[in-house]
Amino acid sequence: MGRVSEQEERAARPSYEQARDELADVVKRLEAGGLTLEESLALWERGEKLAALCEEWLEGARARLAAAMAQPEDGGTGAPF
Questions:
Q1: 60 within domain boundaries
Q2: From CA 31, how far away is CA 39, in angstroms rounded?
Q3: Which residues have C-beta within 8 Å of that of residue 40, sequence separation ≥ 6?
Q4: Domain count for the chain
Q5: If you ran DSSP here, which 8-state letter would residue 78 be given?
Q6: Dihedral, CA atoms, 35, 39, 41, 47, nearest 10 degrees?
Q7: Is 76 helix (H, G, I), strand (E, B) or coil?
Q8: Of 63, 44, 58, 47, which is closest to residue 15 (Cα–Cα)?
Q9: pLDDT tens digits for the chain (81 residues)?
Q10: Helix, strand or coil, per DSSP, at residue 7
Q11: Which residues, 6 or more positions from 44, have their beta carbon under 8 angstroms from its beta carbon?
């Protein structure tokens, strides 16, 4: 079996909203306590991955907005509004 392609990896990753919601759940579970050290570490690691994924989504959104605003339509000012 070969490596998962970048396209397949992107298709399998959660949306921004899914990642954000799961991250919020991870934080609640960690704050509630009562977990073993191993469970806490696993949740923390998952939270770090989810936070990085959310940041990727937000950076992509910022780049798309910047690109859209940099290309004025029909000689406009560049402002989308």
A1: yes
A2: 13
A3: 30
A4: 1
A5: S
A6: -90
A7: coil
A8: 58
A9: 566 677 776 668 899 999 999 999 999 999 999 999 999 999 999 999 999 999 999 999 999 999 999 987 765 555 556
A10: helix
A11: 30
**Owner of token pair 């509004």:** 81
Query: Cα angle at 11 between 27 and 29, to 5 degrees?
Result: 10
Question: What are the φ/ψ torsions at residue 80 (nearest 5 degrees)?
Answer: -75, -5
User: DSSP readout, 8-74?
Assistant: HHHHHSPPHHHHHHHHHHHHHHHHH----HHHHHHHHHHHHHHHHHHHHHHHHHHHHHHHHHHS-ST
Q: Is residue 1 domain-resident? A: no
Show the domain range for 53: 6-69
